[in-house]
Amino acid sequence: MEKRNLICIGCPLGCPVTVELDGRNIVSVTGNTCPRGDAYARKEVTNPTRIVTSTVRVSGSITGAATVSCKTRTDVPKQKIFEVIRGIKDITIPAPVHIGDVIRPDVAGTGVDLVATKDVE
Ligand code: SF4
Questions:
Q1: Closest protein CA for atom 3 of ligand 1
Q2: Residue 28 Cα, ligand 1 centroid: separation in angstroms?
Q3: How many whole angstroms separate alpha carbon 27 and alpha carbon 36?
């Protein structure tokens, strides 16, 4: 029986959660204070994902902004995070940019769009 110790990232409490596995089967989840911790732990040991946040360069902003913040619209597989970051590091987009604009569709082949999280005029 394998034990995986995790810290739940569902809220600032950061509960220590233990998952017991029998091969690929989850036998138990303990230590969570609420159901979100159980769901997080089960997903983390079977299909861990994260939203990636970053910035990309902007050209021609009338306010002089050099970058705009961005994020993947939804979670991407954890093992794809570095590919996503590599895929966006050389992007420069022209101003104006608005919240929700798609900066890079299907970023790093994840099927998830990279979108702006700020307005830049
Ligand atoms: S288990 Fe619940 S209370 Fe504990 S960190 Fe996760 S979300 Fe917060």
A1: 33
A2: 16
A3: 17
